[in-house]
Amino acid sequence: MSPKQKASGSSHASPSAERREHLYKILVIGELGTGKTSIIKRYVHQFFSQHYRATIGVDFALKVLNWDANTIIRLQLWDIAGQERFGNMTRVYYKEAVGAFIVFDVSRVATFDAVVKWKNDLDAKVQLPDGSPIPCILLANKCDQQKEGIVNSQAKMEEYCREKGFAGWFETSAKENINIEEAARSLVNKILLNDKLLQSNDNRDGDKFALDHKIANGENSRDGGSKSCSC
Questions:
Q1: Contacts of residue 51, Cβ cutoff 8 Å, sequence gap at least 6
Q2: Pair 139, 178: CB distance under 8 Å
Q3: Which residue in 20, 78, 89, 100 is a FRET match for 122, CA 20 to 30 A apart?
Q4: How does it sit in the membrane (predicted)?
Q5: Largest Cα–Cα distance of the chain, in whole Å?
Q6: The model scores a pTM over 0.90
Q7: pLDDT exceeding 90 applies to what percent of the chain?
Q8: What is the DSSP string of the chain?
Q9: Which residues does residue 30 pair with via DSSP β-bridges, in sequence order?
Q10: Which pLDDT tens digit goes with each residue over 132-169?
Q11: What are 53's strand-pairing partners?
Q12: What is the mean pLDDT of residues 13-35?
């Protein structure tokens, strides 16, 4: 299996155990100092430190999930530095991602103001195979601290996320381990749903191609074959 197939969420099954494995590339983006690295460290290693140096360029982490009895999911988390915002390299970093978190700091309203720029940049540079945006969840991080702005209103945050095309939002704290697992599980569920929809579309396209091929070669149900429909 090629890296591209893996990164886009393809799977393979063992003939005996029917175990499925997925590798998903997930981006973690947002302004400098919003806690992106802390979130990843907490999620992957169950570890928190007050002292992280700013990420330079991009960093990686791998989280392995035993999703169910037959499914293993590997999440390749790309920690993209805040100072890389909207640079030419982000297109390379975003390539083949199937999901994203955008992170802001609830105690610094300027980091929330920048969220829409990150979302627009993300949507412009990476899409699913059918051309739709990749699912993106907004993380209102450092919720253990004093909050500023509309994050104090759940209704306003819900409206904001609907308007901007987010798949959802969570208040999180890497320090207190609040909602990190829940946010990740929500994003993986969205990715798996997209996988099923895309595979279903691929199957329908394949059936339509087979029918078109028969018609083009003069084959139809009146020749004794079974009736079929591409719809």
A1: none
A2: no
A3: 20
A4: Lipid-anchor
A5: 75
A6: no
A7: 60
A8: --HHHHHEEEEEE-TTT--EEEEEEEEEEESTTSSHHHHHHHHHHS---S--PPP-SEEEEEEEEEEETTEEEEEEEEEE-GGGTT-THHHHHHTT--EEEEEEETT-HHHHHTHHHHHHHHHHH-B-TTSPBPPEEEEEE-TTS---GGGG-HHHHHHHHHHHT-SEEEE-BTTTTBSHHHHHHHHHHHHHHHHHHHHHHHHHHHHHHHHHHHHHTT--GGGTPPP----
A9: 103
A10: 999 999 999 999 999 999 999 999 999 999 999 999 99
A11: none
A12: 83
Which of 133, 172, 138 shows the shortest CA–CA distance to 158? 138
231 pLDDT higher than 60:
no
For residue 163, the model assigns a pLDDT of 97
Which pLDDT score is estimated for 228?
A: 37
- pLDDT tens by residue, 85-109: 656 677 888 999 999 999 999 999 9
Provide the pLDDT confidence category of residue 206 given band limits of 50, 70 and 90: low
Residue 217 and residue 207: Cα distance in Å, rounded?
Answer: 16
| Sequence-ordered list of residues with C-beta below 8 angstroms from that of 199, at least 6 positions apart, any chain | none
Amino acid in position 121 = D
Cβ-Cβ contacts under 8 Å for 153 (sequence gap 6 or more): none
